[in-house]
Design a protein that fits this description.
Elements lengths: L6 H10 L2 H6 L5 E2 L5 E3 L11 E4 L4 E4 L5 E3 H9 L3 H11 L18 H18 L6 H9 L4 H6 L3 E3 L5 H8 L4 H6 L3 E3 L4 E3 L4 E7 L5 E8 L9 E3 L12 E2 L1 H11 L1 E5 L2 H10 L4 E4 L6 H11 L12 E4 L9 H9 L1 H4 L2 E3 L8 H8 L1 H9 L2 E2 H11 L6 H16 L4 H15 L3 H14 L43 H15 L6 H8 L6 H11 L10 H7 L6 H9 L10 H30 L6 H23 L1
Parallel strand pairs: 13-14, 13-15, 15-16
Antiparallel strand pairs: 1-2, 2-3, 3-4, 4-5, 6-9, 7-8, 9-10, 10-11, 12-14, 16-17
Helix pairs in contact: 3-4, 11-15, 11-16, 15-16, 17-18, 18-19, 18-20, 19-20, 21-23, 21-25, 21-26, 22-26, 26-27
The structure holds zinc ion (ZN).
The site of zinc ion has 8 residues, from loops.
């Protein structure tokens, strides 16, 4: 049993730890008058810093949301620890030995310190294994990607032996219990006993901002490994994948200094960027970039009130944020509109990721990649134009029709105006005509909600007397089933999502997957579809709706809950599986018809003599769409 820490020790640790250093791991602080520092509050969403730290007093206070406390409550709130764990972590930070009442001792089973210790011991073990004879495939993998032993050492890369009992027996020998090792995600629990989760894989340690190892990413190396290409630590008390960014421990200081973060897709891309001198690169771990990642990064990027756009922090994606696998990224920024203006995309012309770019073209090319960034909205609009032939009137009209919704989705009015003019220029059309099309598009996506998550008003009366409150924002009602437009298309999309959320495993799996990737008319329902698309691995999970909610941007959570609860328009006694397959089938059929119409249009615009190859390609796609429709009808 964990014992109470002696009162005097708690006070001693509190007075010895510099709260500015601790907070500084999470928030970029700058001077704010005598004895005071300030930065962006990690507890609420703000653009101008109202989070103050007074190192002499050992306390922090936020004038925006009223959060207030000492170094222990800061750790408790940001890292979700108990009070005792917060004290223990701070004591460890300054090498202070705590004393416990009545001969008690440090909290043990499953607590944060034990899990971090297990992870640290595992990291050392994996690193040692990388030099062994078995690790040949691992060293070859690194070498082929341009990483020498020094690079492997710099990033703490290791190797998990191909064994069910390597890390298990090693760490049990170090005094860790099987329960602790299962809780830490290092072992998987089998029917009879627990066994190594990572076997025959290259291992990257994933660390938090303080440098503590909280989990691992593991890549498959062996042909007989039937697992996924990448395997990560599951959710544990110390590892939350929606918030974790690989490389943040290495990049944090440079992110604060340069006010820039570069988001790449994988572990090797992070390594390549840092080695090439782009030391602000981080990657998500086994999940798409989402709103929670923005919350982690925002305080480090440190905006200031009244700053012009050029001095705002920058987020640079090195991949197309709207590609299927990463669609959540552009959603996240559409959600966090104030951040969107600071979001850029830098994609190599030939689509090489930073790792391959460094391998083929050298360090310089990686640095130039980031310098060639374009604003995210410009990138997204231009990408919709790419699919159209702007030489013809029909092509320009079609291009306007498909790009207008992108411009309409920008909620910052000053940006919208700018992009209306830019789009008019790119299309060679009159700005008024483009403005009209954008207005029309805005009305059809009217169901899209405003983004900012509302915080409950502070009950702290002292807050009322502060004059410099952050600017108030209009309160919007989130999207709701009740406010969806009542047309055939929207109803079909709503019913299909209800069917998946309420009976995820009823319809044939392929059909559910196709439905989750069809084009939606309604913007809000499209957000729910994306969250479902990101959860397709868990259709059989009993808590499927919870898993979808984890992928859902905050303001849409209510809509997901409504869709998961609302009455299905099924008849009494009707077969649920049949109903679900029916409604998903209709949705997929609609999507195939849309694809067909699009392809026929393209076919029409293609000159068979000038572009026989393109015409053949379109014809082939048409055949595929028709085949898919036939399969659908026979099911
Ligand atoms: Zn606050």
């Amino acid at each position: 049993m964990p014992g109470l820490i002696k009162r005097a020790d708690i006070d001693e640790v509190r007075s010895r730890v510099n709260i500015a250093d601790v907070v500084g791991d999470y928030v970029t602080l700058k001077g704010a008058g005598v004895g005071s520092l300030k930065g962006l509050c990690p507890f609420h969403d703000e653009r101008s810093p109202s989070f103050h730290v007074r190192p002499q007093v050992g306390r922090y206070h936020c004038f925006g949301c009223g959060e207030d406390g000492d170094v222990f409550s800061f750790i408790q709130k940001t890292d979700h620890t108990t009070f005792q764990e917060a004290v223990e972590r701070m004591a460890a930070r300054i090498n202070f030995t705590l004393h416990y009442e009545d001969g008690g001792q440090a909290s043990d089973h499953g607590n944060r310190a034990r899990l971090l210790a297990a992870n640290e011991a595992a990291r050392e073990f994996y690193v040692e294994q990388l030099t062994g004879a078995d690790a040949d495939p691992a060293r070859r993998f690194l070498g082929q990607r341009g990483f020498d032993p020094a690079a492997a050492q710099r990033f703490g890369v290791g190797f998990a032996p191909k064994s069910f009992d390597a890390i298990r027996s090693h760490l049990k020998g170090r005094g860790f219990s099987e329960e602790e090792l299962v809780t830490s995600g290092l072992l998987s629990q089998g029917d009879r006993n627990a066994y190594d989760r990572f076997r025959g894989r290259l291992i990257w340690p994933i660390r938090d901002v303080t440098g503590a190892t909280i989990g691992f990413g593991a890549r498959k190396l062996l042909d007989d490994d039937n697992g996924p290409k990448y395997l990560n630590t599951p959710e544990t008390p110390v590892y939350h994948k929606s918030q974790v960014l690989y490389g943040l421990d290495l990049a944090r200081k440079d992110i604060s200094r340069s006010k820039r973060v570069v988001i790449v897709e994988g572990y090797t891309d992070v390594m390549a960027c840092h080695l090439a001198g782009v030391t602000t690169a981080v990657a998500t771990c086994g999940t798409s970039f989402g709103v929670d990642h923005i919350k982690v990064l925002r305080p480090m990027l440190g905006d200031v009130r009244g700053a012009d756009a050029s001095s705002l922090g920058e987020v640079v994606f090195t991949f197309d944020p709207d590609e299927a696998g990463q669609r959540a990224a552009s959603r996240a920024f559409a959600e966090e509109q104030r951040f969107a203006a600071q979001t850029f995309v830098a994609v190599a012309p030939d689509g090489l990721d930073p790792c391959d770019l460094r391998l083929n073209r050298g360090d310089d090319a990686v640095r130039r990649l980031v310098d060639g960034k374009r604003p995210m909205f410009e990138f997204m609009i231009k990408r919709t134009l790419d699919g159209h032939d702007l030489e013809t009137v029909e092509g320009r009209v079609a291009a306007l029709r498909s790009s207008a919704p992108v411009v309409a989705g920008i909620r910052d009015a000053s940006l919208t105006q700018g992009y209306v003019r830019s789009l008019a220029g790119w299309l060679g059309l009159d700005p008024d005509e483009v403005g009209t099309a954008v207005d029309a598009a805005r009305r059809t996506v009217a169901a899209q909600p405003k983004a900012v998550e509302r915080l409950a008003p502070s009950s702290d009366p002292s807050r009322q007397s502060i004059t410099s409150l952050p600017e108030a924002e209009p309160v919007d009602e989130g999207p709701s089933i009740l406010r969806l437009p009542d047309d055939l298309s929207t109803r079909m999309e709503r019913d299909a999502l209800m069917a998946i959320l309420q009976h995820p495993a009823s319809a044939p799996r392929d059909l559910t997957i196709q439905a989750a990737f069809s084009v939606f008319v309604n913007g809000s329902l499209g957000v729910v579809r994306d969250a479902i698309a990101a959860s397709l691995d868990h259709l059989d999970a009993p808590n499927f709706v919870d898993l979808v909610l984890e992928q859902t941007p905050g303001p849409f959570a209510g809509l997901v809950r409504e869709l998961a609860m609302g009455p299905l328009p099924e008849r009494e006694g009707a077969d649920v599986a049949l109903y679900c397959a029916g409604i998903l089938g209709s949705l997929v059929e609609r999507d195939l018809l849309r694809q067909k119409a699009e392809l026929l249009g393209q076919m029409h615009r293609t000159d068979v003599r000038a572009e026989p190859e393109k015409r053949r390609e379109i014809g082939q796609k048409l055949v595929e769409v028709e085949a898919a429709r036939r399969i659908l009808r026979n099911e």
